[in-house]
Amino acid sequence: MKKLIATFAAAALTALLAATTLLLGVAATPASATTPGPDNQHLASRAPLPGCAMVLAPKASSDQGRVCLQKSVTLAAGSSAAASPGVCIYQNGPVFSPAWANGWELCAYGSGDLWVPPAYNDQASSWISGCTSGVFYAYQPGTAPWGFFPANSAGNFPWGGVPNDALSSLSLDWPC
């Protein structure tokens, strides 16, 4: 029964997002995504911290000083833990540039909805996704403007309807 409800909820969200696109003219899918290439190694090095849904690295280029900002219990009901990040967002862009490597990194693990912690809200400039797809939101999950991101891709904000330095929440489709 839970699986049926989850399937129905996913279909309803897809329909809602499509209707939002038609009504508001907000782009659901960006024109193109870049292939991360060397990112596969970068995300693979970002092992989860025990019981953590969102991990901060003070510098995107380093594993030193990583801390848990959100425990897994903050994930939506029915979500699960993960072995590698579903998506990492970055203070700086463009992705893979020298500026990107010097800013902070927030990596999200599991599935379901996550809110960007207040100290990092409305500051993301780029992102890299792992094995999952999902949606970025400028406000709370399920609201416009939003932008779908595909699995195993990377990009810079603005993305879809989410402007640069406007990311407030995200949704991960499944755990990696």
Automatic annotation (TrEMBL):
<feature type="signal peptide">
    <location>
        <begin position="1"/>
        <end position="33"/>
    </location>
</feature>
<keyword id="KW-0732">Signal</keyword>
<protein>
    <recommendedName>
        <fullName>Secreted protein</fullName>
    </recommendedName>
</protein>
